[in-house]
Amino acid sequence: MDLIPWKYMNELSTLRKGMEDLWSRFAGEAGLAGAGAGWNPRVDVSETHDAFVVKAELPGIDVKDIEVALTGSVLTVRGEKKEEKEEKDRQHYYSERYYGSFRRAFRLPGEVSGENVAASFDRGVLTITAPKAVAAQKKKVEIKVK
Length: 146
Description:
With 146 residues, the protein is α+β, with helices and mostly antiparallel strands.
């Protein structure tokens, strides 16, 4: 019999996504979603040797409507997706798009050098690179043989 390693982080991530999807469906069916309810863009947070990288999907948002702030190790992204004005002759039969403001805050898992944080916006994806403080960067220690 072979042992298969349990990847608990993948399972927790899958469970979290499932719960978010369930809540989104419930909110939509109950009429809680839509105007004024807010929405949250999908986000990836990753770590390299010398920085934390946050990527947020923000389709349909103008870059001037996005704000990024760093306070200590908490990175906050906020903005607003403005609703398109409807034409007089148009009737909507089905709408899944969300409009309104959003705010996401992430506690980065280490110290950040706040002076060199960079953000770029390309094809609806906001990429934020927050360099680690020198003290927080991993240093490989060489083992000497005597």
